[in-house]
Amino acid sequence: MKKHLLFAALAMASLALTACSASPAKPDSGTDAGGPNDGSCVEDTDCPDPTFFWCHNFKCEPACRNKDDCSDARRGEFALPFCSTADGKLGCQCDEGSCVGSLCSSDADCGSQVCRNGACVAPPAASTVASCQITPDLVVMKSGASTIFHVSAWDASKNPVVVKEGATWTAVGSTLTVTGATTGNKATFTAAQATTGTDAVDGVQAAFGSTTCKAKVVVVPSTVTAGQVGVVVTDELTGRPIENAKVVVSSVNDGAAVDQSGNTFLPTDKRGYATLSTGGAPSFTVSAFHADYGYQTFANYKPSSATAAVLAMSLRRNQTDKYGGYKGTFTGVPANSNVHAALAGMSLPGSVTDLSISQLLGPSTPTDVKIGSSIDQKGVKIPAGVYLEFGGSAIKPQVSGQGLAGTCTTSAGAADESKITTGTCGTRAAWGLAGDIPLSDLPIDAIASGTSNLDIGALLARITPIFKKFNSSIVRDVSFELRAPTTPGDFKDVSFFTPQDHVFTQMPLAFNFVLKLGELPKYAGNYADGAILIGGANAPGRGIIPLGVGVAVNTSPADGLIDAVKDAAGNVVVPAGQVQVRMAPTHHGAEGSNYGILVAAVSAKAITDVSAGLALSALFPRLPNNALKFDPNGASPIDLTAKKFPAFIEGVKYNFTDTAQPGLAGRTFKLGSGTAPTGIDVIRVMWSDGSEHHWDAYVDPATAAVGFIMPKPPPGLADRTYETGLSSGARSDMVVQGLRLAADDGNGAAISYTQEVEFDDHNLDTVTDQLTAFSVVYYAKPKVSFKTPASGTTSIAKSSKITVAVSSFKIGTTPSDDGVVHLSFNNAGAPITGCDATNLSTETTAGKGELDYTLPALCAGAAVTMKAELYRIDGTTPVAPAVSTSMTLAIQ
Fold this sequence. Notes:
It is built from eleven helices and 63 strands. It is mainly beta and 892 residues long. A 15-stranded mixed β-sheet has the order 19-18-21-22-51-50-53-54-46-45-40-41-44-37-47. The radius of gyration is 30 Å and the shape is globular. It starts with a helix and ends with a strand.
């Protein structure tokens, strides 16, 4: 049962603070559109007509069993004005037994009109556009390659405007040519020729009548001389070239740097470009290093042709060196006795697989939580992005969200290059998901007696309808500054954040539909324990904006399907293998963005086995016709059964040291299986040091199966495969991802490793556009500690029991294990008679990571240093880098 609490906790986030609360003391005014009776009720007969109304949370609501029950013809004198279909209105849907107004999700829903903020309205005229901006506003291209440009627009009041016809696109000069349509909100341009010099030049223009905006471009040559490789290094999130990045070509045989006219590396020029010798090898490894950015390595790259070896390397600025964002509260919170909870943040630009958890969640704030007379807790740690209020009493009214460095403009509307190039500004979308939840809707009774016999399926059946009470809030364009934290890793100071509030009830999560999933993936021999679904839209220049949520569990480790959800009477609400999702349509300037859903199958194996890492496997499908639908019962579910979840990449090995270890040469990475995983196009290995500075290696799955060698950084740069950047220290954490990629916004042909890294129409800076699925396994650095005696103990009795705890290390002596714990005793470095060293190779309880040892009766001394160290499976060789812990005490 314990392993399923991960998913219960997610679904019950709003329950955590109300688990002991009583029912509301007075009627709930609700947020749903009601009927003619706005008074209170206790039962259905208190409403105007029980046939057409029902009493829900002490309020009469328009009742229905199907959509027809909401029509004027069916309701007669109790017709609902908001359900009218006259004058092009969309009518109503029957949502969880109540009639609610229908929304649109795309222009296709509105005929000659357009869908804006969920309603069909007249198209905004191009003349309303007072300013515009192209994304990307600066790009480095290769001659002959194409780039898609998008345009965003604002009216004179700086409100976002999405014009149906879009802009008129033209090429500036002769560097680029328009490919395809010349009108719309996006256009494709192809590089006709390389630019001269190293400066960017105007290449693209978008025009809304007399209002115009431009984008700059740098075009590098498309070919190199045989025996060379061209490398373009750019900032992933701004498109700017990175000057003075150190580029290294290394041998696939030993990792040694290929000589570059007496140097081990070459710097990039103002274009972010460098041409290097490959040493004549048919395949080689290329790496780019810059202290302000994550390092990047393309391992064992073999050019598609002798002269086509031009690579595109997109580096992300170190995410925790500087921080910034917005702060505010939620306005328009309903004045009732309900729980009002919300989560807020900033849009996620770049790759959705590359997130900083420290920044995503923000620092936790100790908060005193008092709800009625049942809950009164002091100092509860609540993340910065959480809003909480109960019955009009503010509990945590302020929220803040952090954003990543990007682009910004001056007061005159021009790109502020001084701030952009130093990573001190950004512009992202602020988002919020806010719920108005009656206490009586919370299944408090289901958890009041504990979780030992918790029926997760039944609990979800009661929780899922709560998402109907949630709303989406978007502020598409929030500019902010970034600063270095006073103390590294401390992001609590938000005094300089941009003020920005959210509207609590801006747009309901009105679209309720069902996804049909296939078999879940297996990790450590068991199927994934559930799925977390985040619906959103990918807004050009802003990134992924969350718009909705869904959750499901798999309570049977032998079952590969999501559990069916049943109501209290045992009726199936959602069949096995299917999951409901609640989403809002794109709104408030995000209209036209591509809808997508992240379907993450998560394994909770790490909860019951401390040697296992956190693991998830995700699908990232786009929605058919880029539109949402209302289909709560799954009459026509979105069928994803043909889209297999990528396999978890388990059992990998990496030798952090320069010295060969059994089966691995120095600095060599290799898949434990020795075979390439199917359904994966690119493998990404990520090391993250103690400052969350990354070094990412990309490799073909076939190459990873046989192994590849990581080069050493150029002199003066930290080795981020180690926690402190020094090879004398502890290893860094390691994450292994498997990426599945496809062209044409994920709908086209598969993209191979070679195609992805070679500079062409699709590269790593647009990987989210190509991503269709991915898997992640977190390989944390192993740890060992003494549990008994506890830290600070100064003496213990002879023959005492010692308990050693390990994590991220599989205890055992078989080839599939990591090794054993070597326990030794000494005094001032000398062995102690009666305290012989021993190996511990069997956990007291399998998976718990604890090993017991009883001291020999003759083991004693006034100052005994006990040392627990991790050894390999041979029991004689310490793991490298070494992992150990020691404590000195008296044994008497």
